[in-house]
Amino acid sequence: MAKTEKSFPRNFTGCLTCVQVLNIMVLLGFMLNYALRVNLTIAVVEMIFDDKDNQTIINATLGNHSVTEHPLHIEQTRYHWDTKQKNLLLGCFFWGYVLTELPGGRLAEIIGARRVFGYSTLLASILTLLTPGSAVLGFGWIVAVRVVLGFLLGATWPAILPMASKWIPPMDRSKFMSNMMASSLGAAMTMPICGFLIAHFGWESAFYFTGIIGVMWSVAWFAMVYDSPGLHPRISETERNYLLKALPQDSGNKKHMPVPWRSLFTSPPVWAIIVTHGASVFGYFTVVNQLPTYIESILHYHIKHNGLLSSLPYLGKYLCALASSILADSLRRNGKLSTTTARKLFTGFAVGLPGILMFAQAYFGEDRVWSIAIFTIALTINGAVTAGYLGNGLDIAPNFSGTIFGMANTLSSFGGWLSTFMVGELTHGNNTPGQWKIVFFILACTYIVGALCFVVFGSGELQPWNSPKQNPVEEKHEEQPLNEEKV
User: Fold this and answer.
1) Phi, psi dihedrals of residue 54, rounded to the nearest 5°
2) Mean pLDDT of 114-128
3) Cα separations in angstroms, 314 against 21, 31, 181, 380
4) Sign of CA dihedral 298, 299, 300, 305
5) Among 83, 120, 181, 303, which residue has the least CB neighbours within 10 Å?
């Protein structure tokens, strides 16, 4: 008979439990994370002065900016930035972002995710409020603000895994990880909201709105979220006792356990996570970033004019992430699938199937309906990574899950730049369906190699180097729910 684990009790007192509050705050936090990131991509259209538009220059040019009249008679500042400066501004976010992935994960393991996630988001929100003012000071200032913004937000993603290891029982972790995909939901909601604000109040309102929301969320985060059940001042005794029994507790020196770098770098399951994450994110960035260009230049269809259609992939990805995570946790909890089997099965589905769809895109991509359908389905299916490799670091090494995710996200952060470079090199001066077929073949191979890598080398088993000096009784306590197998 298979070993099973009871589901986390949903309600102890008739009110929200601390775990439920944590889930809500993390979900909102990742929605905000992308809102602080994509607000510029929406506002930049109105920030740059276009001599071809019909707007009236109210004042003479002052330095690199002019004051113009918005179609709704709103006076707003516009800047004379060329295309190169615009792309530099949009891409400089990743300069800082890539630097803090690994340090952010490790710092959360040492001082706690509450401070790393909370202060990073708070400072990023304050910088967002200062963005319009920095643009007035000069182009270099707003570039610097975006670089620091990326530096701060880069630490947030890997920080959340160490918190999950303290709060979320193993059989509920897939669902918890789906909260990270709320970032896609945040992007889908931010675009129309900021578009409305810009149309009525000017481009500055996009930064003020997201910045104020960010500050409000940060205050709530520090008021309601703590690093562990033992530190929470308002947790009920029933919930505290349940979590203390379900999860191993830190000893005095466990937070500062040195990272077994040699074991990490020689571990096939760790590299399976890194390679698969890199392949998945590379494909995601390529599809999301290049979709408007492909549809406009090859299919001659302005997808940006259809807000609902543009948001479908984001919404679909989140819903798929949530549904697949609930299913994976249920199958593992009931003993129908081992952790290893579940992670491999859902990773193969979420990363491998989009690869097959990219092959289909290469052959049917010139048809408008088929092309949009394939792109949307591929991005939706990719949301199932939350039940696959995304939280796998918690399975194999919860003590170093932040470090592992930081390693993986550092590599994948180059995906945005690499995908843009690849498409640019292949289509420069020869933007034809034939060249785009090469792009789709590369995407297909990347997705499939990533899926195969995890299917072959991935694991859901707790690794021995996770707690090399841990008491055997404590280690068994952690292994019990993580390594359930059918017998």
Assistant:
1) -100, 10
2) 97
3) 24, 11, 9, 7
4) negative
5) 83
Residue ranges in 353-462 assigned as alpha helix (H): 353-364, 368-381, 392-396, 401-412, 414-427, 433-457
30, containing H or E segment: helix 18-47
Neighbours of 369 (CB within 10 A): 9
Look at residue 88 in the predicted model and tell me its pLDDT: 82
pLDDT at 339: 94
- In this structure, of 95-99, 245-249, 320-324, the range with the lowest mean pLDDT score is 245-249
CA atoms of 55 and 203, how far apart (whole Å): 15
Residue 323 has pLDDT above 60, yes or no: yes
pTM of the entire predicted model? 0.81
* Strand, helix or coil for residue 278: helix
On the 0-12 / 13-18 / 19+ scale of CB atoms within 10 A, 486 is exposed
In one-letter notation, the amino acid at residue 150 is G
Question: Which residues 6+ apart lie within 8 Å of 391 measured at CB?
Answer: 161, 164, 173, 174, 176, 177, 401
Residue-level length of the chain: 487
CB 458, CB 348: distance < 8 Å:
no
2 sits in the region (left: phi over 0; alpha: psi -120 to 50; else beta) called: beta
Q: How far apart are the C-alpha atoms of 410 and 408, rounded to whole Å?
A: 5
Mean pLDDT across the chain, nearest whole number? 83
| CA distance linking residue 385 with residue 391, whole number of Å | 9
| 77 strand-pairing partners | 67
Give the separation between CA 107 and CA 260, rounded to whole angstroms: 15
**Of 310, 413, 314, nearest in space to 91 by CA:** 413
Which of 34-43, 329-338, 390-399, 449-458 shows the lowest mean pLDDT across its residues? 34-43
Based on the number of CB atoms within 10 Å of its own CB, is 449 exposed (0-12), middle (13-18) or buried (19 or more)? middle
Q: Which two tokens stand for residue 145?
A: 């603000």
- Beta partners for 62? 65
